[in-house]
Amino acid sequence: MDTAPSYIRLYEEGLLGEKVEKAYSFLEECSVCPHNCGINRLKDEKGFCKTGLNVRISSFFPHHGEEFPIRGYGGSGTIFISYCNMRCVYCQNYEISHLGEGREYTPEEIAGIMLYLQEERCHNINWVTPSHVVPQLLKALYIAVKKGLKIPIVYNTSSYDSPEIIKLLDGIIDIYLPDLKYLNDQHGKKYSKVKDYPDTAKEVIRLMYKQVGDLKTDERGIAYRGILVRHLVLPEGISTTKKVLDFLRSLSPNMHVNIMAQYYPYYKAFEYPELSRRITELEYREAVEYALQIGLKVVNG
């Protein structure tokens, strides 16, 4: 069982640096995410994500609140990236994702953060909300690998990613942790303020699965490769849970999924009556029972 991160082989073959260069080419007329703002972020111009050349980070630490295959015993080396390319009205981390809490870091500084988290005995490096800053993170990774980074990267995303960027990540990311919110285009526009969310999310999750396959864990139950999909149950059927689970089952009968019950009407959710309450025990139980009924591997948080 080879549990070494894929990016090490890519680095040794001289291909990781090439991928960094290609990623930076997406910044000149920005097409890093599906918004395709077209601004020059190499000149620190800012579009939808309010992020120019450097990456704003809110916090970083060994996170013990993720799913067990991700957090393990030593925690997940989580880096909370500020701003986001979505505008979910119910976001529980809106101070970070909408308001940009944090400060800017260069790729060299981010490399230092990753090495620090490895020294803290984290099982992986967990990039939270990376979709809009992939080029900078890849440059940081390249610097960190040269200095001895050797734990897997977790790509923790809301799944509004550029398919071209996900293709570029082939051979770099070992663990994908996408969130699939809903498979209703109108819900994506109304509650997350983005267009084409269902089609985009499905395409990128297909690509992720093709790259890494089903979740694989070591003898301790800690993930070293594969995909684990998160799905937050929303009230009034807004999360289109059965459609989401059917889609995941169509990709693999062994798909691992965390069906989450922690929805709370944060931020602007009270402006939408249908989102202004927590879910019921029945709504959550029906979601889990359906996932088990169709054979998915349900992972608890």
Describe the structure.
The protein is of the alpha/beta class and 301 residues long. Helix content is 36%, strand content 17%. The protein is built from eleven helices and ten strands. It has helices at residues 6-12, 16-28, 68-71, 94-97, 107-119, 134-146, 163-168, 185-192, 197-212, 241-251, 281-293, and strands at residues 55-63, 76-81, 103-105, 125-128, 153-157, 175-178, 216-217, 223-232, 256-260, 297-298. Strands 1, 2, 3, 4, 5, 6, 7, 8, 9 and 10 form a ten-stranded mixed beta sheet that branches. Helix 2 runs antiparallel to helix 6 (134-146). The longest helix is centred in the last third of the chain and has 16 residues, at 197-212. The relative contact order is 0.14.
Task: Based on the model shown, name its key terms.
10 strands, 301 residues, alpha/beta, 11 helices, 10-stranded mixed β-sheet
Q: What's the total count of β strands?
A: 10
| Radius of gyration, whole Å | 18 Å
The termini sit apart by 26 Å
N-to-C series of helices and strands:
HHEHEHEHEHEHEHHEEHEHE
**Strand coverage percent:** 15-25%
The major sheet is characterized as: 10 strands, mixed
Shape: globular
What is the average of the pLDDT values?
97
Structural class: alpha/beta
Q: Treating each run of at least 4 consecutive H or I residues as one helix, how many helices?
A: 11
Q: Pick out the low-confidence regions.
A: none
Percent helix, as a range, is 25-40%
